[in-house]
Amino acid sequence: MRRSPPRARRYDAAGTRSALLGAAALRFARYGYDRCSVRDIAKDAGVDAALVYRYFGSKEALFDAVSTSTGLFEPLRHLPLDGVSAWICDVVSMGPTEEEAPHPLLTKLRSSSREETVGRLREEVTEVFSQGFARRLEGEDAELRAELLAAWLMGITLLRLAIRSPALAATPDDTLLRFLRAGIDPLLDADCPGRGSEDR
């Protein structure tokens, strides 16, 4: 029996733009600009390719939007919370070679010695995690838990892809995901176990 093709996801305008930015950030990081097609980016986002042109005008304009925005973090604005661990695993395991395209997080982290870049990165973390994602978390210490999530994402990316620490670099994605879930999922829980009895 022939299966029907998967239905496109339904987003509002902001959700569509966000989904396209997130999908494009991952595609450009994995394959570089020339090896990415508008059709593939739209497919990853679950929308029609025509919407790339509606919201961005061209592939080049989409690339510019990803490069000058927090495009890589966009999925955090609409992802179900139970999909966050898998998304982080996807980000830290994309692993392109430097010749193909630098990982977008590594580009940010490697230039973080410049005061201007540090300030911009701080603004991105504040906007996406401390403010935006924290609002999606229930329970106490939401801002701290959101920033700890950012620390997991950036720290693991740096160790695995730039420093290439032996265990992290060699760990299969499914094993990494198992440990990521164990560490990240409690941060997403309204009853986060981080508080000791002295805090209650």
From TrEMBL:
It comes from Streptomyces antimycoticus. This is TetR family transcriptional regulator. It holds the Pfam family TetR_C_16. Keywords: DNA-binding. GO terms for molecular function: DNA-binding transcription factor activity; transcription cis-regulatory region binding. It comes from the Bacteria. Residues 14-74 form the HTH tetR-type domain. Residues 37-56 bind DNA. InterPro entries: Homeodomain-like_sf (IPR009057), HTH-type_TetR-like_transc_reg (IPR050109), HTH_TetR (IPR001647), Tet_transcr_reg_TetR-rel_C_sf (IPR036271), TetR_C_16 (IPR041678).
